[in-house]
Amino acid sequence: MRGRRLYLSLFIVVIVIGFFYAGYKYGVNTRGAEKVLGGNAEFVALYDNTPRVGILVAMPSEAKYVLSRITNKRSFAALGYNFTTGIMAGKPVVLVISGIGEEAAAGAVEATHILFNVTWFVDIGTSGSHAFNHDTGDVIVAARIIPYGNRMYTSYTKWRYMRLGITFPNTTWMKFLYLNCSAKLLSLASRAAEAIKLPETPADLIGSKKPYKPKVWLNGTIASADIWTANSTYIERIHEELGTDAEEMEAYGFGLTCYRLGIPFIKIAVISDSGLTGSPWSPESIKVSMQNGVMLLEKMIELSSSWQ
User: What are the percentages of helix, strand and coil residues in the chain, rounded to 5?
Assistant: First the structure.
């Protein structure tokens, strides 16, 4: 009888210790989630330690072209975001749909970091051209991201750009205007670009009489802000002052959060419209541009084993 009680007691002790261990191990993730999302996070049950390529996309209309190339898909919602894990080009990946805007993208990176072991992160999505030589179907691989919404206005037409940068935990303020993407990932994109050929963009998408031959442009500069600039005069001014190739609305929040977390990152901006040439933003332009960007991304992932 005493032997049975002893075994039962030992069994209970083991169970209690196990619960404490699980609470400690996963409580770190839960507290991290609450810190990011203001205490309204769902309980994080598991941390996926599988090394994965992280893919951030703002809108479902963009994400479906990435998802079409992922196999063994498993989709779920956690920490306020929709995730899909699976295999792309033979490698484990995780895709997160962030929603539109810098803050949404920053939160999506934090949530992904809490849940997954991300080896490198890419933000891929549609963008508007800032140069006459870029049009629908072109793929811009960013070397730099600039928060062009950080301006001090003295009038409606007069402004200057502010070097806000970041403040570190020790209160040191490092000012910068351009945020640099990973040089290694830029090199990987260069190798991938040499191995693919983009299809022609239909003439009707660019208001032309003949199809457009898109290209992969490396070493790009992406303007990022919670602003959609639809005025061609302003677009030309921003391009002249900052050397921008395209604009979109998530890259700086995405990149700055990756930078703080020590995750190598890169931005792939696919041109879906142009306020300079008049090429309109449409479901068909999203399809053409995203398919081109995904072609490059898939090749990058395929070649990434040598990068790692």
Answer: 40, 30, 30
Distance of alpha carbon 96 from its chain centroid, rounded? 8
- H helices of 155-207, in order, are 183-194
Residues 6+ away with beta carbon under 8 Å from 94: 48, 52, 53, 54, 55, 83, 84, 85, 112, 115, 116, 118
- pTM here is 0.83
User: What confidence category does residue 157 fall into, taking pLDDT thresholds of 50, 70 and 90?
Assistant: confident
Question: pLDDT: is 13 or 209 the higher one?
Answer: 209
Does the structure show a pLDDT above 70 at 180?
Answer: yes
Q: What is the pLDDT of residues 239-270, one digit of tens each?
A: 999 999 999 999 999 999 999 999 999 999 99
CATH topology classification for 48-307: Rossmann fold (3.40.50)
Kind and range of the H or E element at 294? helix 283-307
Range with the poorest average pLDDT among 111-115, 167-171, 240-244: 167-171
109 CB-contact burial (10 Å; exposed 0-12 / middle 13-18 / buried 19+)? buried
Q: Is 63 left (phi over 0), alpha (psi -120 to 50) or beta?
A: alpha
Give which of 45, 47, 54, 92 is closest to 73, Cα–Cα: 92
The answer to whether residues 127 and 269 touch, using CB atoms and an 8 Å cutoff, is yes
pLDDT, position 305: 77
Domain ranges of the chain: 1-46, 48-307
> Up-side HSE of residue 101: CA atoms within 13 Å toward CB?
5
Compute the distance between CA of residue 221 and CA of residue 193 in angstroms, rounded to an integer.
Answer: 17
